[in-house]
Amino acid sequence: MTRETTPLNIFTSRFPLPETRAALENAGAVLVDDLAEADAFICHGVAPADFPELPDRVKWVQLCQAGIEGFFAEGVITAGQEGDRRWSNASGVYGRQVAESAVALLLSVTHMHKKIARAASWSVWRDVDENTRWLHGATVAVVGAGGIGRHLIEMLAPFGADVLAVNRTGHPVEGAVRTVSIDNLKDAVAAADHTVIAVPLTDETRGLFDAGLFSAFRPGATVINVARGPVVVTEDLVAALDSGQLGGAGLDVTDPEPLPDGHTLWDRDNVTITTHSANTRASMDAQLAGPVTENYKAFLAGERMPTELDPAKGY
């Protein structure tokens, strides 16, 4: 790979990223106001369907999301006419924030906060007293032990929960009492009191949590989804909640998304839903500044960027 010898002209859109822009300028990049003059494009706040046509001179595109399946689906992510355009995303950048939100959802469901809030009355105290569940001594399956999963394992430790990690290979994950491969997912959820989904959305994970998998859950278990909505088959989730196979769910992502007003999942005491806000847009700039600058430096050095995409894998 040819080493770049001059700074890149970088164009950013659509929302301002002042901290990221300042970090790039400190690293020697030149910020330009016209995409036609750019060698690199920092894409923030642009939907896949609205992605601009890139000049041939753009050789690096930084997507500011971790989940970029929509850009693959729209055919946006290509190597360009010269075959040398490279892409990176924000994989792992928001892991701590999303893990914190996963813990919040888990506690909300197990401590019955929504039931209390909806009742707006002390009269529910007996049900809460009898049915509140605790993380201490519980087994939590973390499905997808990447950036989010690693932070989540760290956060669960003080609660006294045992973590069963699930990843592609079964290679041991630090902090987990046991790690299994995705091929053993049914056994993992059967052993868990709570399951947190943190996998990327790929052809292999789309619809992974369906009726067949929910039937393997420990009766009354909790499921938390901070991955992508289509990883879970919504109709099967509803059925598992109706039957009592699942005791509750916490969802930062849904399918469809946004979840329509009046959907049955909104009106359940044992389901807490947030608005795909495990990481907020307002917090993104400060988190992106360092990783995007590291990607810039790696690109200039002719090295693989820390969050460079592998188009063949879809992430």
From TrEMBL:
CDD domains: 2-Hacid_dh_2. Pfam families: 2-Hacid_dh_C. The keyword NAD applies. It comes from the Bacteria. Residues 104-278 form the D-isomer specific 2-hydroxyacid dehydrogenase NAD-binding domain. Keywords: NAD, Oxidoreductase. GO terms for molecular function: NAD binding; oxidoreductase activity. The keyword NAD applies. This is Putative D-isomer specific 2-hydroxyacid dehydrogenase. It comes from Corynebacterium glyciniphilum AJ 3170.
